[in-house]
Design the sequence.
C-alpha cells in the first residue's frame, strides 16, 4: 500500500506513541483552532485521524542546503475515522477551516492559512478513499520531494519538481527558439532594429555632448560656430534612434 508521510513527521508521531507503520498520509498546516500560529501535523492511519500541535525549530545539518526542523510537541488529538462523519472545508478571506459533520452536528477540526487549502482537500480525499475501502492515495497528488537533491533549493512548484537553478537553460533557450521557426524573418528584423537602437543610444550622447561642446562651441574646435547644423544633427540622430 502506498503512503505519503514525510520522514520528519514520522519521528514526532513515534515520540507520542503513535504506530507510524499504519500512517498513510500526512500534511503540515500552520494554525491552532483559536487562530494562533503553530506547526500542526495532521496524519491519517490506523483507523484514526491524528492532529499534533507544536513548534518547529530549524537545526543545522551537513550537506545540501535545506530546511530540517526539530519539533517541540504541545499537544496531540486523536479521532476515530468512523466518528468523524462528513468532512468539508470553508474558505475565508485569508484562512480556511476543516469541518466534520455527523448526526446534524458539526465541529471545526483544523484552522489554517488559505495557502494550505489544497493540502487539506487532499487529506479529505484520502479519508474518503479509506471510508470507501479503496486505495487511500487513489487520485491524490503526492509531492514526494519538495527540495532539489542537487542544490537543496525548494521547488517553486513541488508538483513539477523543476529546479530553476539546476535546469539546463541552454536547452530551454533552444526549445523556445524552436517556436519561432515560422517567423525567422521577423525575428531577424527585431534583432537588427535592437542592434541599431543600441548603436544610436551610444552615438546620441557623443553627438549631443562631446561633439557639441568640444568641436562646435569651443573656439579651437573643428566645427566652431556651426551651431544650427550641430543642433539639426543632434535632432536627426535622436529622431532616427526613436
Sequence:
Amino acid at each position: 500500500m502506498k503512503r505519503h508521510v514525510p520522514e520528519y513527521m514520522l519521528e514526532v508521531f513515534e515520540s507520542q506513541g503513535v504506530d507510524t507503520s499504519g500512517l498513510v498520509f500526512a500534511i503540515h498546516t500552520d494554525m491552532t483552532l483559536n487562530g494562533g500560529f503553530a506547526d500542526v501535523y495532521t496524519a491519517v492511519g490506523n483507523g484514526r485521524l491524528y492532529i499534533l500541535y507544536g513548534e518547529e525549530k530549524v537545526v543545522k545539518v551537513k550537506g545540501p542546503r535545506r530546511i530540517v526542523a526539530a519539533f517541540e510537541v504541545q499537544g496531540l488529538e486523536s479521532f476515530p475515522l468512523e466518528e468523524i462523519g462528513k468532512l468539508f472545508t470553508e474558505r475565508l478571506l485569508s484562512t480556511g477551516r476543516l469541518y466534520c459533520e455527523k448526526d446534524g452536528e458539526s465541529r471545526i477540526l483544523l484552522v489554517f492559512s488559505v495557502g494550505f487549502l489544497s493540502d487539506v482537500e487532499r487529506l479529505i480525499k484520502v479519508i474518503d478513499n479509506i471510508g470507501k475501502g479503496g486505495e487511500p492515495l487513489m487520485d491524490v497528488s503526492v509531492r514526494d520531494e519538495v527540495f532539489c537533491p542537487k542544490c537543496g533549493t525548494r521547488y517553486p512548484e513541488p508538483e513539477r519538481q523543476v529546479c530553476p537553478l539546476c535546469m539546463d537553460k541552454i536547452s530551454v533557450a533552444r526549445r523556445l527558439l524552436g517556436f519561432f521557426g515560422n517567423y525567422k524573418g521577423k525575428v531577424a528584423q527585431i534583432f537588427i532594429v535592437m542592434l541599431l537602437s543600441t548603436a544610436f543610444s551610444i552615438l546620441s550622447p557623443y553627438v549631443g555632448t562631446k561633439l557639441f561642446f568640444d568641436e562646435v562651441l569651443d573656439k579651437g574646435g573643428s566645427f566652431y560656430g556651426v551651431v544650427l547644423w550641430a543642433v539639426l544633427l543632434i535632432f536627426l540622430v535622436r529622431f532616427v534612434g526613436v
Remarks:
- Strands lie at 23-31, 37-45, 48-58, 69-80, 86-91, 95-102, 105-113.
